[in-house]
From TrEMBL:
Classification via InterPro entries: Ald_DH/histidinol_DH (IPR016161), Ald_DH_C (IPR016163), Ald_DH_CS_GLU (IPR029510), Ald_DH_N (IPR016162), Aldehyde_DH_dom (IPR015590), ALDH-related_metabolic_enz (IPR051020)
Organism lineage: Bacteria, Bacillati, Actinomycetota, Actinomycetes, Streptosporangiales
Entry's EC annotation: 1.2.1.73
Protein name, entry field: Sulfoacetaldehyde dehydrogenase
Enzyme class: oxidoreductase
Organism in which the protein naturally occurs: Actinomadura macrotermitis
Aldehyde dehydrogenase domain residues: 15-467
Family affiliation: Belongs to the aldehyde dehydrogenase family.
The keyword Acyltransferase appears for this protein: no
Length: 475
């Protein structure tokens, strides 16, 4: 098998070692990836630091055209890249194709935002001392970005780090997840086709134990991390003088109120508790149903979950594939078994075959069970009855996480109340918390992280205001 190169300051390179990438469903090797040496990592970081001024001064049209080029090339190679995502991650082709399409949009949105990204002016003669003065306010890059991407959306969540960096003129060093580096490396290949300066983008598949050196490096003043809660907060504590954006975990809740369309709610919750095999920070994990419709709703939910097509990710009809590893599936299995031993009832699912865990619905789950309190990151949901809106919202907020929540209601008053009262980064009315438009602000509170992604939001995160005051202006 040919060795896949990494991307060092815009050019392909190999190191002294390689590692294998395996498919979670059948265990076969799908790629052999070169590992950068420490000297090569140093070269990449030094190149990003050396090009920072040139990158920041790039004309908008150069940045925008590079981003548009990536969007076009991802679209042209969409099926190839989707199959690569399925190969390395195990997600069904259904979702891999959707991920590529989202990445196409991310780079297109970034190109559009880059063209809109303009300085503002502010009159200062609102006070006599400011007569004849005008402030010109621009946003300038804080410096090169270290982007650390997760395994669950190996292309699109890498895109969410790379695209805003290019849009604002910030160099970026990407560290993909060791389990799923191949799609990020294809992105590096496509970026190398653009006219961006050498050194502006590097994609370095280094093992996790070498990431702290990158986090510590003062030449990378911005860190954008998506991943686990412990690692994310450890990065922030390790780099207190850096700008650190964290997109961490969640145990997303959906609320089904008495006025909801129960068939729609059951279908959406059933699918989006199990898409990506539940390996999404906003997959539905907790479902709170008004007691008045609980008995009518639960059979609909169980039927929706039980009808999902599970198994071979290469089959275009498959909706739920394997988790990223057998170890991950065994952990999910142990959490479910622990809940059942404490009194929970399995309404459907609850079985494992290798890395595939059957879509599972649990009821009567004890309040302290891991499947309720922590992030399962697997195809498991817990359904519970509640007495009205007050209890439902209290249950949603009774979590150490706060990424997104979904509320199925037809009431506009309840919708705005949810927006006011739910302690999360985003509230989705009439649908699951799993809904995300890539251009909107996205991020959480509490243990779900700090900062926001979404193109405009991330561009703001990567930059800071810089003011020039013009004096003696006849306004």
């Amino acid at each position: 098998m040919d060795v896949t190169s990494f991307w060092l300051a815009g050019r392909p390179a190999t190191g002294d070692e390689t590692f294998s990438v395996t498919n979670p469903y059948d265990g076969r090797v799908v790629g052999e990836v070169a590992v950068p040496t420490e000297a090569q990592v140093e070269e990449a970081v030094a190149a990003a630091d050396a090009v920072r001024a040139q990158a920041a001064a790039l004309p908008v049209h150069v940045r925008a055209e590079a981003l548009a080029h990536v969007s076009r090339r991802l679209a042209e190679r969409s099926e190839e890249i989707a199959r690569l995502i399925t190969a390395e991650n195990g997600k069904p082709l259904l979702w891999a194709r959707a991920e590529v399409n989202r990445a196409v949009s991310v780079f297109r949105f970034a190109a559009e935002e880059a063209r809109r990204w303009s300085p503002t002016t502010q009159r200062l003669d609102t006070d006599p001392g400011g007569a004849g003065r005008l402030a010109y306010v621009s946003r300038v890059p804080k410096g090169p970005v270290l982007g650390i991407a997760p395994f669950n959306f190996p292309l699109n969540l890498t895109a969410h780090k790379v695209a805003p960096a290019i849009a604002v003129g910030a160099p970026i060093v990407v560290k993909p997840a060791p389990a799923t580096p191949l799609s990020a490396l294809v992105l590096g290949e496509i970026l190398a086709e653009t006219d961006l300066p050498a050194g502006m983008v590097s994609v370095l598949p280094v093992p996790n134990d070498r990431a702290p050196a990158l986090v510590d490096d003062p030449r990378l003043p911005v860190v954008s991390f998506t991943g686990s809660v412990p690692v994310g907060w450890a990065i922030r504590e390790r780099a207190p003088r850096k700008h650190v954006t964290l997109e961490l975990g969640g145990n997303a809740a959906a609320v089904v109120l008495a006025d909801a369309d129960l068939d729609w709610a059951a279908t959406r919750i059933g699918l989006f508790s199990n898409y990506q095999a539940g390996q999404s920070c906003i997959a539905v994990q907790r479902v709170y149903v008004d007691r008045g419709v609980y008995e009518a709703f639960v059979p609909k939910l169980v039927e929706a979950v039980g009808s999902l097509v599970t198994g071979d990710p290469w089959d275009g009809a498959t909706q739920v594939g394997p988790l990223v590893s057998t170890d991950a599936a065994e952990r999910v299995e142990s959490w479910v078994n622990e809940a059942v031993a404490a009194g929970a009832k399995v309404l459907t699912g609850g079985t494992r075959d290798g890395a595939v865990y059957a879509p599972t619905v649990l009821a009567d789950v004890p309040a302290d069970a891991k499947v309720l309190r922590e992030e399962v990151f697997g195809p498991v949901l817990v359904v519970q009855p509640v007495d009205g809106v007050d209890e439902a919202f209290a249950q949603v907020n009774d979590s150490s996480f706060g990424l997104q929540a979904g509320v199925f209601t037809r009431s506009l008053d309840v919708a705005f109340r949810a927006h006011r009262e739910l302690n999360v980064g985003g509230v989705i009315i009439g649908d699951v918390p799993s809904y995300r438009a890539d251009q909107m602000p996205y991020g959480g509170v509490k243990d779900s992280g700090v900062g926001r992604e979404g193109l405009h939001s991330a561009m703001s995160d990567y930059t800071e205001e810089k003011v020039m005051v013009l004096t003696g202006i006849d306004l």
